């Protein structure tokens, strides 16, 4: 999967002009039938970002690495490769691992036309590691001691290594609704989590509230009331709970957000993941972005990523959806199709297909089955 545009496509509002002179997509959509592999297509981005920032802090020494390998190849290592740009420097991160341990891990940076290693870590025959680094600032002794289920970057961040700190902060800006088991399904407790998150950031709170008002849900305001309860240990906990304020010519009333429609609650939780990326930059990796939402809301969310006014730091979005109308919004280099055959998923970008013109009606072609990636019904 690539955000790179290339030189051929005409300019669009969803372009980022990189310092290198290349163009990069702000938005990429993934479309396909149920069970085709759309979630699997996004899962590596969600896994790598969380593993790089959390593994040294969250995983116990003997805990399994939180990913699920292909069922037919559980006894073989799984490999990931990720290219990214940070402060105008291009990096390549490669990791091979099983549920039990990391087999190899390496970070490279581009120098002129080739890549030069920043660090390389390999499992040896005795169950230990060899480690070498060049300008990373993490000693060989330290590198060899990193636990088998922990990323070197995460461990180096713990030791305040400058390069690791920069990369850690980069991946910390990835926001996702995926876990290693799949999409986080909506649950009522998420509303409280969002309210607590927004309480500490007035700008984000205003952004989320205004988006809800603009999307015409019949809500005029959102207010927060403190609720107190005792946890299992008897400790008293206070948290803010959101109430939606409704007004009409006959008066006004407020309802706990729990009592609003499924779509309103889903939107409230979704905006918590979109708003921070738009404010601070980063990448939102969202599975089934249109779940519980009216199709007309998706273009509004995509519009936020278009313009500097709403996306000042060139945040990026990759998402899956079951709304084929997205093909009327995006260009062919911004859409991936996913199809499964013989238990293997294949993904391709529409500009990789021969015979697809820039002015083609992608929606009509997809609905007619000419592009593939549709259910066999």
In short:
With 377 residues, the chain is an alpha+beta fold. The protein is built from 9 helices and 18 strands.
Notable traits:
about 375 residues; alpha+beta; six-stranded mixed β-sheet; about 30% helix
Task: Explain what you see.
With 377 residues, the chain is an alpha+beta fold. It has a domain at 41-172. It contains nine helices and 18 strands. The chain has a six-stranded mixed beta sheet, with helices on both faces. A five-stranded antiparallel beta sheet has the order 4-5-6-7-8. A three-stranded antiparallel beta sheet has the order 12-13-14, covered by helices on one side. Helix 1 runs parallel beside helix 3 (152-158). The longest helix is centred in the first third of the chain and has 21 residues, at 38-58. The protein is globular. The two termini are 28 Å apart. The mean pLDDT is 90.
Question: What order do the helices and strands come in, and which of them pair?
Answer:
Blueprint: E1 15-17, E2 23-25, E3 27-32, H1 38-58, E4 78-86, E5 89-97, E6 102-111, E7 114-123, E8 129-133, H2 140-145, H3 152-158, H4 162-172, E9 174-176, E10 178-179, E11 182-183, H5 189-199, H6 202-214, E12 221-230, E13 236-248, E14 251-256, H7 262-280, E15 283-286, H8 297-306, E16 316-321, E17 335-341, E18 344-349, H9 362-367
Parallel strand pairs: 3-16, 3-17, 9-15, 15-16
Antiparallel strand pairs: 1-2, 4-5, 5-6, 6-7, 7-8, 10-11, 12-13, 13-14, 17-18
Helix pairs in contact: 1-3, 1-4, 3-4, 5-7, 6-7
């Amino acid at each position: 999967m690539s955000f790179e545009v290339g030189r051929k496509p005409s300019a669009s509002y969803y372009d980022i002009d990189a310092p290198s002179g290349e163009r990069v997509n702000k938005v990429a959509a993934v479309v396909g039938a149920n069970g085709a592999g759309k979630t699997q297509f996004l899962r590596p981005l969600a896994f790598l970002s969380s593993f790089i920032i959390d593994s040294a802090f969250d995983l116990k020494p003997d805990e399994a690495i939180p990913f699920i390998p292909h069922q037919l190849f559980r006894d073989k290592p799984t490999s990931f490769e990720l290219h990214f740009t940070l402060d105008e420097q291009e990096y390549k991160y490669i990791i091979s691992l099983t549920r039990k341990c990391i087999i190899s891990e390496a970070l490279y940076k581009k120098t002129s036309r080739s890549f030069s290693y920043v660090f390389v870590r390999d499992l040896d025959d005795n169950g230990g590691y060899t480690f070498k680094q060049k300008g990373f600032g993490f000693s060989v002794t330290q590198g060899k001691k990193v636990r088998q289920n922990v990323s070197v970057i995460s461990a180096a961040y713990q030791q305040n290594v400058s390069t690791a700190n920069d990369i850690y902060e980069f991946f910390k800006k990835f926001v996702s609704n995926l876990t290693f088991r799949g999409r986080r399904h909506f649950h009522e407790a998420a509303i409280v989590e969002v309210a607590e998150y927004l309480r500490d950031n007035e700008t984000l709170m205003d952004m989320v509230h205004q988006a809800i008002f603009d999307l015409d849900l019949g809500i005029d305001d959102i207010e927060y009331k403190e609720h107190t309860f005792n946890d299992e240990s008897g400790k008293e906990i206070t948290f803010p709970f959101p109430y939606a304020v409704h007004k009409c010519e006959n008066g006004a009333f407020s309802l706990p957000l729990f009592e609003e429609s499924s779509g309103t609650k889903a939107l409230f939780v979704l905006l918590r993941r979109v708003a921070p990326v738009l404010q601070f930059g980063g990448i939102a990796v969202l599975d089934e972005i249109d779940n519980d939402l009216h199709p007309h809301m998706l273009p509004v969310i995509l519009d936020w990523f278009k313009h500097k006014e709403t996306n000042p730091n060139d945040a990026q979005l990759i998402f899956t959806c079951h709304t084929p109308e997205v093909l009327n919004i995006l260009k062919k280099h911004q859409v991936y199709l996913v199809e499964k055959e013989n238990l293997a998923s294949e993904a391709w970008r529409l500009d990789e297909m021969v015979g697809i013109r820039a002015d083609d009606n992608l929606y009509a072609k997809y609905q007619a089955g000419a592009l593939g990636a549709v259910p066999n019904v």
